[in-house]
Structures are given as structure tokens and as C-alpha cells.
Amino acid sequence: MGRNLRIDIREIFDAGVRAADPRKAILRSCAWEAAHDMLVIGERSYDLRGRRILIAGIGKAACPMAAAMEDLLGSRIEKGLIITKDGHTVPLKRIEIREAAHPIPDERGIQASEDLIALIRDAGEDDVVIFLISGGGSSLMILPSPGISLGDTQAVTKILIESGATIREINVIRKHLSRIKGGQFARTVYPATLLSLVISDVIGDELDVIASGPAVPDGSTFDDCVFILNKYRIMEKIPASVRERLEKGAKGDIEETPKQGDCVFTNVGTHVVGSSGLSLQAARDAAVSRGYNTMILSSCIKGETREVAVVHAAILREVRMSGNPITAPACIISGGETTVTVRGPGLGGRNMEFVLAAALEIEGIDNVAVLSGATDGTDGPTDAAGAIADGMTIPHAAGNGINATAFLENNDSYHFFSETGNLLITGPTMTNVMDLRIILIA
Question: 21-275 has which CATH code?
Fold first, then answer.
């Protein structure tokens, strides 16, 4: 890969990540009119006069979001607590920080969630709870339903992730195994006013999917849970306690999550302040400034990672052959979130697997580059955000006795790119707006 391509593709990715800065997203969307004690969010204004303000937060972007609220409201914040992923903290003055595990929850998440509930349960009718929500919240705010242990929750989460289930499907299950997800956080806060500020990490910014929709009506049911488990043929693999709860719920023996029209949503306001669209546009602008003819393919890419990689590689080939859909020098950008059906015992994530599958498809093509990275800086259970490859990646690996196909079949993309020196390492970015994929054709 030529030096310029490698530099360009990384700088385009970094521009997309910078555009998703949570602190800037809050300050861009919110303002406090101190003279009238009014909080303005977008086109809505909220009267704070004489009202206590409590801050709650969950997710990988919770700390910078909370820092922005401290910048805005200062001493008007009485107290607060946020739960974030290990290593995703920034200093705060008035708001307590708790760290917990992601994507498989741990005991720290349970204790922090109990403390968060104790904080908001104290809110009265005249109080305001500002809820900061970002990706990762489903794992970090974890309060299992009665009869469901932490071990049960960990097991079913791992099984669902490895089955190839989408994040929407995984969160449908999570909502029905929790005391706080699927609108139940709003139920706990009611009758206080609940204002949610959201950094979206899901396709279409679906509010009932982001962090498992703790503060919005839940459109899913216990029946949906049973359908999903049968769809992926994992009903018999999940813990008996989980299976029993979901089957009872499907029969109507357990109360459903709160739905549209429930009074608990009377005093709720929800605002999306950051999403994938801004990152894709910033990446596009960065590519154009570097002289590339650029198109955003889609912000809604989903499906099995390897199949998505084949399609992206086919577009690359078409640009080289016919100049369609754009002519070289070209940059093609896409966002969204794919899934991986785990078949082998290796280490990796959907972005590294995408790049490895794409590298096999573009083997031998010169002057092209492919990058896929998680905007939160973490691809699967690894320290890499993703990877970079070109048409020479596979031949060079083969020349060193490295069999790329074997690594792919073992879902071991991390070790392939570690050995070939093509990991994309960013460290925690403190944000999360899904994945960013970039193709460059010189």
C-alpha cells in the first residue's frame, strides 16, 4: 500500500470519529439560559426554576456527555451518577463515575445500577432527571429480573452475540430479562420530569434499541423473545431460568414492559444529539478535501460481515473496471453495524473480519485500500478498533507462510492483522456511533 493511501484512509477515519465527539454534541444541541433558568434542547425549552436537577448516565460516551452538562449547568446540578466502560472516564466535578464491564456485564454493573436507581428513586414530581444515553448502555446498566442471575445474563448475552443475532434482537431479549430496560427506567423516574440526551449507535436511531430503550416505550414483547431464540436455534442452549421466564411471559403470566400510551412517559422528553450521519459526512468532507471523488454508500449497512465485505469489494472492482458508480480517485464510505456468526475459537471483531474477508476478495489489485473501524475504538473483545488492508495484504501474508483463509474460518482476524502489522489501534475514543468503513481507489 502506498504511503499516501495509508495516511489518507486513516485521516478520513479519524475525521469521522472526531465529528462524533459527545461533549461537542451536547454543547451543540443544548444551551442554558441562566437569566431565566431555562434549558434549551434543540427547539424545546424546559423551565428549571425551583427544580432539583439530577444527572444519570450510561454508556461509553457517558463521561464526556456528563462533562458537557457540568459545563452548561455547573452548580445547578445537585448530584449525579454515570456508568461507563472501563477506561472511558474523564474528570468530573459534581457527578460520580462508576466503571463496569462491556460487552459481557459484571457484578460492578449490578452494584452501580442499584445505586443509580437509588439516586433517581429519590426524585419527586418537581425534580428533573437528565439522562445521558450512549452505546454500551445495555451491558453497563444491568439489573436482572427476579430469578435471573448475573451468570444467566452473561451466558445468554454471549450466546446471542455468537449466534449472529442483530443488536435489535439482542436488546429485545435484554429488555425482557431486566428490571430497568425497555422503558422501565422511565417507570422508576415517574412522576419526575425525565429528559434523555442520546448518542445513537444503532441503524435508524431507533430509540427503543439504543441501550435497550430504558426511557422510551418498548415495542417488543415476550413473544418476540421466544421467536428470536427459535430463529437462531438457541432455545435449548440458554439457561433454564431465562427460558422459563420468557415462556411464562409469552403466556401472559409476567407483566410486559411499558408500552406506548403508558402514563410513565407523560413527563419524558427524548433528544438524539449525535449519530452516525454526522461522522459519515465528516469523513466524506475529509476525503473530498484530499481530492477523492466521494460517495456515501449507506449509513444503514447490516447483515453477515463476510457477505457485506464481498459486496463492498465488488463495488471496488466495478470502480476500477468501469468508473461506476464513481470514477477514480475514489472514496466510498459506509456506516452501520454488521454481525458475525462465530464458527471458530479465534479472536476478532466484525470490523477486522470485514477487512480480512475484503482483503481476500481484492487480492492482487494495486493502488486500493480498505479500512473498517469501530468508532468507539474497540472491535469485539480486543484492543483494536479494526484493520486496514490492500491488494497486497494477502500475497505478502502468504509469502510469510500465513494462511489468511484459515484465520478467517477460525474467526481469528485479530491475530492475522497483528502478525501482518495492519491493526487499526485508536484507544478509547469516548464515543460510539457504530462502524465506519472506507474504500480508497487511487
Answer: 3.40.50.10180
